[in-house]
Design a protein that fits this description.
- About 35% of the residues lie in helices and about 15% in strands.
- By secondary structure, it is of the alpha/beta class.
- The protein has a single domain, classed as Alpha/Beta hydrolase fold, catalytic domain (Rossmann fold, 3-Layer(aba) Sandwich), CATH 3.40.50.
- The longest helix is centred in the C-terminal third of the chain and has 17 residues.
């Protein structure tokens, strides 16, 4: 089981701050109170009125910042919003402490129902890919298209490099790891995350690295950081063991929305070999394989991912009438 992670510490562009959370130029944050959960939403002003809505869902340990490189490239195509899942980014923990895939999916559904933005182009990475798969399966009315970047779908053969993240699901491991790494600097932690998540960590600029360290320091100071990580990791492991109609592969087969699958050849957390199985499971799928990408293709190769999303919209007849203006390439 290749449970996945990516702290939002890998944002790669300089930006002013709102409070203690980094916000890229053109972005804005707002807080949305819902029954049992409070969510922070990162958005960009749409290029014009009437663009179809999109919602981006990050992975384990990540945040809406993970989408800051991709969102501006889709400005002319969609009205972009990215969610901080409960307990991550700038969203506080859920009231009921439910960090399961179903619990996170319920938060996404509550937001979409309350905002009236659905159906959306739903885009998820890692844990966010599993969450988005479940949302698309149980609420097809909320999803126009589905784009999954290295989705955390169950694997029988575990990649050795994914084992430490999966171990966070075990009781007491997060606490022990916290003690073991108490003397690690934020710089050391960030380098470790980048080495694990990027196909080529050199893609991160020095400025991006400094921003990442700053964000890591902020996140480590949160009293619930490791609890949210451990409980969400446990949620992935539990989702992997579910069978029947609630199994993620069975739910993938139920997805009606046109689906774009993106896998990296150097992904150390979600095996590249599972890509073909995923392409067969989703009934209306197309597969983009990026041999040099790691676990976060939308951060490593945002232009390529944006072009693929544009092609998905064009192929499915959902490309807005944009004339000669588009940021995703033409």
């Amino acid at each position: 089981m290749s449970s996945t992670e990516l702290p939002s510490v890998l944002a790669t562009s300089a930006a002013p701050k709102v409070g203690s959370v980094r916000v890229a130029p053109g972005e804005r944050l707002r807080t949305v109170g819902l029954p049992g959960v409070t969510l922070t939403i990162r958005s960009r002003p749409p290029a014009r009125e009437g663009l179809p809505p999109a919602l981006y869902v990050h992975g384990l340990g990540g945040s809406s910042q993970n989408w800051s490189a991709l969102m501006p490239l889709l400005d002319g195509l969609v009205d972009s919003e990215a969610v901080d899942l409960p307990g991550f980014g700038d969203s506080p923990p859920p009231d009921d402490g439910d960090y399961s895939v179903t619990g996170h999916a319920r938060s996404v559904i509550r937001y979409l129902d309350s905002s009236g933005r659905g159906p959306v182009h739903l885009i998820g990475n890692s844990l966010g890919g599993a969450i988005s798969t479940r949302v698309a399966a149980v609420r097809p009315d909320l999803v126009r298209t589905l784009t999954l970047v290295s989705p955390a779908l169950p694997e029988l053969a575990v990649q050795r490099s994914a084992v430490p993240t999966a171990l966070l699901a075990l009781p007491g491991v997060a606490r022990a790891f916290t003690r073991f790494t108490k003397d690690w600097s934020a710089e050391q932690r960030v380098r470790g995350v980048m080495a694990l998540c990027y196909g080529d960590p050199a893609l991160v600029t020095p400025e991006g690295f400094r921003n990442a360290v700053e964000e890591m320091e902020r996140r480590l100071a949160l009293p619930y950081f490791w609890d949210a990580m451990a409980r969400s990791a446990r949620g992935i492991v539990n989702a992997y063991t579910l069978g029947g109609q609630h199994g993620l592969w069975r739910q993938a087969e139920r997805v009606l929305a046109p689906t774009l699958l993106i896998y990296g050849g150097r992904d150390q957390l979600v095996s590249f070999r599972i890509a073909q199985r995923a392409a067969r499971a989703f009934r209306d799928s197309r597969l983009l394989a990026l041999p040099d990408a790691g676990h976060v293709a939308m951060m490593e190769y945002p232009d390529t991912v944006a072009t693929a999303v544009r092609e998905l919209l064009a192929e499915t007849g959902q490309l807005p009438d944009i004339g000669t203006t588009t940021s995703a390439g033409s």
